[in-house]
Amino acid sequence: MKQINFVTLLQNYKSGWVAISSDFTKVILSGKTLKEVREKAKGVKEKLYFFPAGESYGGFVGADSLSSL
User: Fold this and answer.
1) What SS3 class is residue 37?
2) Are 17 and 33 spatial neighbours (Cβ–Cβ below 8 Å)?
3) Is-contact 20 53, C-beta < 8 A?
4) Is residue 3 part of a domain?
5) Residues 6 or more apart in contact with residue 1 via CB below 8 angstroms
6) From the CB of residue 44, how many other CB atoms can be counted at a distance below 10 Å?
7) Which of 2, 12, 13, 33 has its CA 20 to 30 A from that of 25?
8) How many C-beta neighbours within 10 Å does residue 17 have?
9) For 20-49, what is each residue's pLDDT tens digit?
10) What are 48's strand-pairing partners?
């Protein structure tokens, strides 16, 4: 399994939530709350993964895609 460097990917996001592309290479959307980001994502056809933005990602396990929420 490919490792994802969240520190690099999310370096410009210190709080709130982000929606990341299915290949984990770019942030597609961001917002203050998960609800806000999910609302913005309703028109996006691409599969997205939602993550909280923060200072450290060492112990983070993951979040699920919009399709299963």
Assistant:
1) helix
2) yes
3) no
4) yes
5) none
6) 13
7) 33
8) 20
9) 999 989 999 999 999 999 999 998 999 999
10) 21
